[in-house]
Amino acid sequence: MLILFNPAAGTRRRRRLVRALAALARAGLPAEVAETRHPGHATVLARAAAAAGTPLVVAAGGDGTIAEVAAGLAGGASRLGILPFGTANVLAWELGLPLRPDAAAVILAEGRPRLLRPGLARFADGRERLFVQMLGAGFDAAVVQGLDLGLKRRLGRGAYVLQALRELPRYRHPRFLAELDGEPVEVAGAIVSKGRLYAGRHLLAPMARPGAAGFQVALFRRGGALRAALYGAALPLDLLPRLPGVELRPARRILLRGEAVPAQADGDPAGTLPVTIEDAPGPIAVMLPATDRAGLAIPPP
Ligand SMILES: Nc1ncnc2c1ncn2[C@@H]1O[C@H](COP(=O)(O)OP(=O)(O)OP(=O)(O)O)[C@@H](O)[C@H]1O
């Protein structure tokens, strides 16, 4: 087993790593640890580990780290493990993974592989980016892009709230086009989601399933600071999907296009529109608790 540890993710991550390693040692599972040195490094390390036949490659970090490791494992036989040491850890909540490091380590030792279906975003400049939970365009991406990493490290999820308040008066809420399987809709924001949850464990897309093909797309038909504030207040109450002006639609292929509209993928900055989103070419086997609550398929033997 190789653990790819992102030293820039989440808070108290080194303490969490020590606890996870101790739990793995107790379970009799030897683990090698490699630290990521820069964004994208986890993909390079994971690809090399998969090529060398490492059976389990573990992302120790948040959703961004998991996505990078998954990108490196795509198409290979290695399984993905998760030690959720990030800030929001949306995928861990989605999949019912424990956040306690020792409990998460036990899943690596005793869990079962299940098939996760990531999304793949293709940008106009040729960049491709795999994502495991969601890709957002509009106000939420402006918040992610403006976030100071030091602040995120100190305040954790509170940093997103603070940054949203800063962004409210200055973001211009440009409208853009979301084409869902060829059908255009004008929106002020869109979140293309693989899972039900958003920004931690808050409900965004109740019909989404991370093991299924396709996406649920949350469309924000109207923009403006007041409306963005209302959506932000509704999110922790799990009321966002029910608010007027918020529509949820299923789609397999999504094109988002507009002028200077920011994008974020799995909570990390992802440039600007246009972007085309489809399922990644193949599923990835991820280690989950033996009693999987997310309903993911079992990989073929
Ligand atoms: N050594 C490094 N220095 C700076 N950034 C790094 C380093 N290694 C990886 N990264 C980048 O850090 C980004 C943030 O990590 P990640 O998303 O895992 O943590 P997080 O944002 O704290 O958690 P979450 O996404 O769950 O809120 C990753 O997208 C990755 O590209």
Automatic annotation (TrEMBL):
Q: Which UniProt keywords apply?
A: ATP-binding, Kinase, Nucleotide-binding, Transferase
Presence of keyword ATP-binding = yes
Q: Do you know which Gene3D superfamilies this protein is assigned to?
A: 2.60.200.40, Probable inorganic polyphosphate/atp-NAD kinase, domain 1
Superkingdom of this protein's organism:
Bacteria
DAGKc domain: residues covered: 1-127
Query: Which GO terms fall under molecular function for this chain's record?
Result: ATP binding; ATP-dependent diacylglycerol kinase activity
- Can you list the GO cellular component terms from the UniProt entry? plasma membrane
The protein's matches in PROSITE patterns, at most eight in alphabetical order, are given as:
DAGK
Transferase as a keyword of this entry, yes or no, is yes
Which residues are the signal sequence here? none
PANTHER family xrefs: LIPID KINASE YEGS, SPHINGOSINE KINASE
Q: What is this protein called?
A: Diacylglycerol kinase family lipid kinase
Source organism: Roseicella frigidaeris
Instruction: Supply the source organism's classification.
Output: Bacteria, Pseudomonadati, Pseudomonadota, Alphaproteobacteria, Acetobacterales
